[in-house]
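Q: For a teaching session next week I want to show students how multiple molecules come together into a single three-dimensional assembly. I've collected the sequence lines for a complex. Could you give me the predicted structure tokens for the whole thing so I can convert them for display?
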Amino acid sequence: MKISVTVNGVDEELEITPNALLADVIRDQLYLSGTHIGCDTSQCGACTVHLNGMAVKACTVLAAQVDGQAVTTIEGIGSPADLHPMQAAFKEHHALQCGFCTPGMIMRGIDLVNNSEVLDEAAIREGLEGNICRCTGYHNIVKAMFNAALEMAPGKTTEQEVV
Amino acid sequence: MSAEQILIWGGGIMYEFKYHKASSLDEAQSLKTNTADGIYLAGGQTLIPTFKQRLAAPSDVIDLAGIEELRGISTSGSVLSIGAMTLHAEVAASTEVRDSIPALAVLAGLIGDAQVRNRGTIGGSVANSDPAADYPAAVVTLNSSVITTQRTIVGTEFFQGLFETALTEGELITRLEFTVPDRCAYAKFPNPASRYAVVGVMIAEYSGKIQVGVTGAAGCAFRALALEDALNSDASSAAIDAVHIDVENFNSDMHASAEYRAQLVRVMAKRALAAL
Amino acid sequence: MSKAVSSAGVSNSGIGASVKRREDVRFITGQGSYVSDVEMQRQTYAVFIRSPHARARILEIDASAALAMPGVLAVLSGAEMAADGIADLPCGWAVVSKDDSPMKVAPHPTMAVDSVNYVGEPLGVVIAESLQIARDAAEQVLVDYEELDAVISLAGAISAEQIYPEIPNNLCYEWALGDEAETNAAFESADHISQLDLSNNRLIPNAMEPRAAVAEFDATNDSYTIYTTSQNPHLERLVLSAFVQLAPEHKLRIIAPDVGGGFGSKIFVYPEETAAAWASKKVSRPVKWTCDRAESFLSDAHGRDHLTRVELALDKQGLFLGLRVKTTANLGAYLSLFASAVPTYLYGTLLAGQYKTPAIYVEVQGVYTNTTPVDAYRGAGRPEATYVVERIVETAARELGIDPAELRRRNFIQPSDFPYETPVALVYDTGNYGASLDKALELARYDSFAERKAEAQSRGKLRGLGFSCYIEACGLAPSQLAMQLGAGVGLFESGEVRVNPTGNVTVFTGSHSHGQGHETTFAQVVSDRLGIDLDSVEIVHGDTGRVEYGLGTYGSRSIAVGGSALVLATDKIISKCKVIVAHLLDSEADLIDFEDGTFTLRDSNQSMDFAEVAAAAYFPATFPEDLEPGLTATAFYDPDNFTFPAGTHICELEIDPDTGVIEIIQFVAVDDFGKVINPMIVEGQVHGGLAQGIGQALLEEAVYDEYGQLQTGSFMDYCMPRADDVPNFVVDTTVTPCTHNPLGVKGCGEAGAIGSPPAVINAVTDAIGIKNISMPATSEKVWRACQQSKSSSGGAV
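A: Of course. Below is the structure for the complete assembly, covering every listed component.
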């Protein structure tokens, strides 16, 4: 079947199988390999992308479901020369080690800042229940997200800088 | 054992099926009738993982996302109505819900995780009757009605067992109606791994009468009548402590024994009571 | 060449600087290149057929239906693989039992041939044009099994059904270390004996990137290229060649590109990449395999899984007289690559901890069960040892009414005691355990803990505090010592520094980064030593086709061994530069000084910078015959000893007795890693280790049912620590430089996971007022313990 989908601002006409997952189409047809697959049960969040501006797990969405909609992946939010503030904060605060969960974390982080009313350390930690990292112990991820939030939406942060 | 027993891998590689996006309830139902083994797809947050594990092999998947009348939140008098395809995130953020039954917004905001709440729907959750889902606690507590393509089902009669509901083949939930209580609160004890409810307790008060709904503890959500009786004579923590929680039908698994679940029912009930 | 120097005197990019990671940009922009991102032209897809039974005989495999499906290229069995000359997967460490008999090795075909011995064991593989076809076809392969009684419980394994005819009592070895008579005598003269029965829960590593392989056979020269998720590509090559007999070493190229975490689980050579490579020859097409998470749970080597009785003998003053330990260790169904060493040489040797215990005796029974093989997982043996020592020390302190910090201090090996030879075969080179403890006590505000406990009590909460003063042996390993103890390979490391004609440097290391940040820290070392910009240094790793040799990354060895190799290589470069400069300045090499990237003729104003010398090396217009052109150096560094990171962890937590829910209020870790190359990265390593240790203590456990089915086979049931399960960590360091490597470094990768579990459990038992609780201390267990403690009026259970 055919779908039309806007991916990172580019309109794509794709021939897909009805049982294709959004994550597989992103990776295998569009060659956007930054969206990772870390589990089969929708827990780890490594495949998090934005669908119409909201974070979703691309491993738990059929590609057929996104016909006519807009998808943003990690490749669509910034580039090495022009990093998104969330990307920059991850580097600045050493919020990644092996990098595998990182795209999903960053996509969720942006969504968290955009769609939260208040952001303090507890809200960030709770907000990450759908993303698993095995390397960092989350300490620096929380710190990076808080600092990115300071830049992206200063009014939402309510605590002093997370140390 | 037989040679047929086999372990399956290839995560994300589902059985093949046909996909349809229904644009009306009629179309959805007619697809369901006219396909060999069609299945409705709401938000897919449970169903798609099930497909991925190859635990379901539908011939056709009928996506309900294009049916406009299944969406939306409204209040009319003392009734809050939520379309079946309304997302958990929408319920959690809805001014209508927060103004009428704030505990329901809280409950919706505790389901799964943020990404799941951005896809999962109230109708899908309720129709699935997962014993550990959150919404069923509200359905049994909040003098609710489950409105389907065929009829109206009283909330307390909807859940019939583990993954079993009053829905008949092809019948679709179109919306849920909750009667706005005077006061209401929900307390959840999440499974640390899956974040489903090990136990969730909703307490609501209607004209001085307390109602208590429990999810997670047994095969499906239920009203805790003994707790209700106790609280209606003495709305206190001590009254909850004095209630004998019958664990005969309680779930007991590696995540929580029946006895522990009973304790959690008590504690969550106390927390909900305190938050009323 | 200029080098910016901060006011503190530490270069902004050299050794000791928290340089931001150079590898990050590709990861944060989604440009990382993991194995599953590798796409080869005409690639095919592999899906494995795995045993649904914990123990069974394979009677028949009927692949006819699968083979008839369009797009199926092959269904290959373990029997065909064996017939093709693919040998067993080896265990690389020979352990000798206390009666001098060699360990009993269960035959471990790469894919099962006649029998299967754990759920998930591969016995065949389907190769097809697409993953969809491969998966559909795998379901059509009918295997007829004769089920056999399986041995699942570790506690009963020795007296259970015998799994392998040649291995009585399912006992791989009965190993012992230490002086039994002396230890028994110590117990006889003791004033107090403390005793505990402990279990160290079975864990599943769960690196976020599932294992994967993409393999291609090149028939034009009989060679294979295998992309795979490995922590040690050269070791993989060695094993596939020398033991598995896949192909000669020079016909194998192993590439481990970006690897998404390992934690030990990607050290080992597994059936899947081996089968994918072999299958690529059979079908004359590249073969790609990517593990599902469900498959990972069953097929990645698991970790830990010990049952232990520990006894500590003390005198009246609380001085330790003797330690007696008896452990049963689960090895799983087969010996994975380093499985035998983990509960022996990486465990028993660490039982002295930080203490001057004069007599120690340990016995370990390594036992086979019908479960997934168990091997090294972050810490590997050392967390188990630390758990035993720090739980029994805490127990003794409570029983004797001595402050647990004080009891530890009383028994510490003192700075003046180094080098200190323990009764369990190690010589600690240096340390200052009191310094770490003091700093940790201060950071944890230990003095005011009683007030906080009382305040918590007023809120109905139980507050507890627990210590762990751990030591680990890292920097694996001195080859001679390791090989004397049974290691099948030397454990040196190699490094090559290749100076390019324009003065920049390409560095090749046998260490492998799968999150550790070598592209940054190793570049810091080289740029610091050569006095050149960090940006002029590129680090290459993870490709046997590019890197000379290497033994990879595990056991917190990269900087201590791999980094040291680079120091030796840079020293060679500098020496050669001096010869070149001496020639060009018409002087002698020993009159040339080198500092901050500049070579100067002593007592003169003549100098050359590094880039000028590099250019001269490649444009040798006037070189004499005995001066080779070029500027490149390789060094192999074999350490003299292990390194011994040590430190104090203090956990403070609160328990809600109504639910058993634990909240970690504060976690302090003060570690002595020797000198630190990049403090930011070191802190990150500690954070991650702590989360894994806290996960072990509170959340994680692999649970099998009596039939050997894994009950915790997904993230729905196996509880990985999430962001809201762990606190912000308070991390600090003390420094006693390692005495025997050129950087003075000790390694930091495992400390967090080693030190933290006993600190957490000591805090839990302190809070409730009980002697023991098993890991993971789940909310239900804790609630039950609270109930029991309350009903027994708060006394010790």
